[in-house]
């Protein structure tokens, strides 16, 4: 079934939502689209999945464009199903608190609610709650329980704030992937029964918006977290690592070739000069010259025949 098809129609005579298998075939089904109020046709063929479709000919009583008739029909039928009374599986609710202290990230997980199953009492559809109109408001053990259905064109409202109503729980049920419920199969299961099974048992589509126990459980988790931080003692650094660091640092300073390249290398100290007496073996001329240096004969003007005969330190 595509998003252009309508799985549930609004029956005109009693204003109730019905499965396509619960009405007569064709235009005589007596149903309209719950989104745009266009008359529907019940398609009950032998090859394709049964579904409602908008009347193809132009009609005068269409209220608006119908881009989300699939989700609207599913949401309306889901409200009707819950109102009649079913058991609903609720997911586990876990949270985490965290703090950065003493150079370490501390975390403490806490459980708000276990996975459980409830059955609502005193159910009301499309009821006001915390400055919003929600899909379902019921009672569970004296607490108000709110259900809000979301889909691509209907996000969770920002005004759904229950800070002043601590005896209430709010659950979001996402309908985004419900079109997979109505794919063609050979089981013969009615679409209404598939939706009931989804509402009763599907956990991934459900998420907690608010739970009355969260505040107290979060406070206890912060107390445990602060106690853990207070008793935490950072591990001392290993002396071996300090020693190896010092040895490495010493080797870096002692060997200029191992020093960091971005640090300039100091030039070697100058070699002290010495004086020596030389004699030219060609002309027997004697002279003094500084070492290191090239002893050049003052007469021959050559160093090739210079011979050192005495040196002064």
TrEMBL record:
Pfam families: CoiA_N. It comes from Vibrio paucivorans. Residues 232-270 are annotated as: Disordered. Residues 30-56 form the Competence protein CoiA-like N-terminal domain. It comes from the Bacteria. This is Competence protein CoiA. InterPro entries: CoiA-like_N.
């Amino acid at each position: 079934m595509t998003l252009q098809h309508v799985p549930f129609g609004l029956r005109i005579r009693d204003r109730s939502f019905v499965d396509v298998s619960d009405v007569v075939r064709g235009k005589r089904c007596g149903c309209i689209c719950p989104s745009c109020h266009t008359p529907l046709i019940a398609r009950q063929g032998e090859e394709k999945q049964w579904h409602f479709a908008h009347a193809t000919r132009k009609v005068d009583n269409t209220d608006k464009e119908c881009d989300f008739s699939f989700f609207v029909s599913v949401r309306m039928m889901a409200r009707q199903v819950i109102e009649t009374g079913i058991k609903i599986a609720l997911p586990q609710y876990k949270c985490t608190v965290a703090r950065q202290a003493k150079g370490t990230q501390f975390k403490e997980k806490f459980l708000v609610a276990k996975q459980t199953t409830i059955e609502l009492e005193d159910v009301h559809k499309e009821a006001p709650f915390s400055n919003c109109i929600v899909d379902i408001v019921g009672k569970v053990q004296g607490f108000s329980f709110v259900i809000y259905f979301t889909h691509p064109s209907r996000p969770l409202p920002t005004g759904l704030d229950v800070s002043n109503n601590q005896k209430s729980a709010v659950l979001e049920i996402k309908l985004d992937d419900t079109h997979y419920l109505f794919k063609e199969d050979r089981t013969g299961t009615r679409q209404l029964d598939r939706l009931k099974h989804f509402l009763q048992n599907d956990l991934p589509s459900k998420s907690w918006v608010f739970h009355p126990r969260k505040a107290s459980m979060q406070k206890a988790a912060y107390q445990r977290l602060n106690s853990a931080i207070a008793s935490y003692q950072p591990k001392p650094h290993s002396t071996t690592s300090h020693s190896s660091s010092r040895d490495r640092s010493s080797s870096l300073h002692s060997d200029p070739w191992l020093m960091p390249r971005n640090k300039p290398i100091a030039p070697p100290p100058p070699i002290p000069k010495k004086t020596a007496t030389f004699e030219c073996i060609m002309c027997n001329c004697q002279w003094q010259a500084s070492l290191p240096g090239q002893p050049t004969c003052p007469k021959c003007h050559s160093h090739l025949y210079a011979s050192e005969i005495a040196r002064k330190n």
